[in-house]
Design brief:
Elements (H helix, E strand, L loop, with lengths): L2 H12 L5 E3 L18 E3 L8 H13 L2 H14 L4 H32 L6 E12 L5 E13 L3 E14 L2 E16 L4 E12 L4 E18 L2 E16 L5 E17 L2 E12 L2 E15 L2 E12 L9 E12 L1
Antiparallel strand pairs: 1-2, 3-4, 3-14, 4-5, 5-6, 6-7, 7-8, 8-9, 9-10, 10-11, 11-12, 12-13, 13-14
Helix pairs in contact: 1-2, 1-3, 2-3, 2-4
Amino acid sequence: MSAMLLIATAAAALGPDLPLETTAPRLPYPPDAPVLPQPMLVLAPPAPGLPAPIRTMIEAAYKTGNDKTISDVVGLAKDNFPTYIAEINGLAQLQGERLAGVRKEAQEREQARIMAASFLQIWKGELEAGGSRSTGTTRTTSIYASAKLQRDGIRWRQKFNARLDYQETDHERTTERWLAAWQPNYKFSDVRYAYGLAQYEHDRFLGIQSRGTLGTGVGWQVASRPDLNIALEAGPALRRTVFIDEANTTKLAGRGSLSAMWKISPTLTFRQDASFFFEGDDATASSATALETKLIGALKAKFSYNLQFERETPTTSRQLDTVTRATLVYGF
């Protein structure tokens, strides 16, 4: 129930029940009697204690568990019923203590559930898939699939990402790229954490048979709200690249990453994920910008713009690849 509706309901309930006193009784007069001054109405002082409609309104606000609703209702109650400010403050304090106790019990139950779970339990994530096929003067088939999994423990957070991008034109492969990454995080607090990274990738048309990355570093949770989440990471990484037609390389690199989620509305979400590797004169960058909209239940539609940059590419002079996709996403 909204704050304004709760206030209106309380005011309507209180109106007819305001006690009235008069200085003299109202007596019937005969038609020819002289007109006497009407007695002045005097509001009786409020009875001790908070009236039931105001109490019900505030208790209903606290039952929602929404801090903004609680603040709005208590503030409006004080503005509209200033006579009862002391009683409103007392009730708000009592309800606040009860709500804090309920939240603490819920947190303890959730922590106990997490601690009792095995490694294969309490995973959350999403599966994404898309594809296309065209025929005519040119026959093209493309497939895209990805998986994102996350397990949040008391101190450890596990992340696993994998994606496959394949395209065939006139029975010849024109895109062949896949990536798998595992990232464990150790949480120092709700804001800071340390991470490890193990990543494997293959991109035939960039001349990369395989590239393995091992890294570590620190992360900062810049924002962590249900409607906004931003995380930054930075640290060193060791990269071993096996080229198809050139000598293999092993280089020390610096890594940075950004992950952001903004829930624009209950049905629309904006996401931005990007990572950067700097290896002296070489550099690699990838970015995925996406809008997600809810369809039915856990099913979403996703529209994304993906960018892949390689400064040194042994098989092509093109350094930048971009792909625009429309896919379906299933969350669990």
